[in-house]
Amino acid sequence: MDLKLVDLTIADDISYKELNFRLEEYGQKQVKKGIKAAKALGFIPKHNVSEDEFKKLFTQWGVYTYTKLLSEQIFVPISDTDDKTLMYAPFQTMAQYYISLGYSGIVYGSTVSKVGKNIVLFDKTIACPDGDIEDYRI
Fold it and tell me: With contact defined as beta carbons under 8 Å apart, do 6 and 107 qualify?
């Protein structure tokens, strides 16, 4: 069975600073390239930006930034509510959105370990234990 999972950990190995730096560096290169072209031609060229390269870089920046934010905040409960049923409403809303797009679950960073990952499956019948199930109480 092939499952479509939203992987919110795709950008875990890159910092916000690095993401922003890449975009800023690209912008600075394009400005320098435009100035050089303007000096050589005597006028500012209309299009001096590679649209494919820009789309790829900007899309990566947007997707990575968005997934990092979601992954970091996915299970942060709403603390200023007295209604416990609303505590995880943001996650439940996001899950419903991904379900509507045909996804089977979400991969996100562990809430207890910096190196672990968790998976939420929207249909509990998808998961099948491999081996014995053990119960640990800590």
Answer: yes
Contact (Cβ atoms closer than 8 angstroms) between residue 11 and residue 64: yes
Look-up: residue for tokens 């603390």?
A: 79
Question: Has residue 77 got a pLDDT over 70?
Answer: no
Instruction: List the one residue out of 61, 67, 78, 79 whose CA is nearest residue 117.
Output: 67
Give pTM, 2 decimals.
0.69
Q: Is 97 helix (H, G, I), strand (E, B) or coil?
A: helix
Element (H or E) spanning 121, and its range? strand 117-121
Q: Are 57 and 22 in contact (CB under 8 A)?
A: yes
- Name the nearest CA neighbour of 8 among 90, 107, 93: 107
Report the 10 Å Cβ neighbour count for 6: 20
Q: What single DSSP character describes residue 85? A: G
3-state secondary structure of 1: coil
